[in-house]
Amino acid sequence: xxxxxxxxxxxxxxxxxIFAQSSEVVIDETILEPKDPILATVIxxxxxxxxxxxxxxxxxNFRMGLLLFSLELISLLTIGxxxxxxxxxxxxxxxxxxxxxxxHAGAIVMAIGVTGFIATWLADIALAGRxxxxxxxxxxxxxxxxxxxxxxxxxxxxxxxx
Length: 162
Fold this sequence. Notes:
- The chain is mostly helical.
- The chain has helices spanning 2-23, 37-45, 54-58, 62-87, 99-138, 153-159.
- The protein has one domain (32-159).
- It is built from six helices and no strands.
- The protein is flat, with a radius of gyration of 28 Å.
């Protein structure tokens, strides 16, 4: 008797799962909103200093955002290696040369890392607005400034292209 009850319960469970799948209609309800190019640039400028690529992530250009972020990590690693080489030249004399040459090489490696760090940050700032505009173009969206006051200055600032 117990086996029959369990079999009926299992049969009911499987049949409801089959009927539920065939009767459901999946509707894609993704709401796309236009991306503000100025806001993308501001995000790249502010929080983007700590994590390069934030402006690209806002504009949903994830490939460029990850590229800039990984280049930032590489530049930070380069700065760290240069600092270690500069601060402890006796540990790096195996490479060759005296301690003065090793300190000089460490300073050069640090400078290369700082240059890479600044370059990736500036690239994020320069490209974030264009990525937001490209996102809007690809999705047929148009960004409009919502003016809540009669002040004309914010509207003029948004129409200026960098």
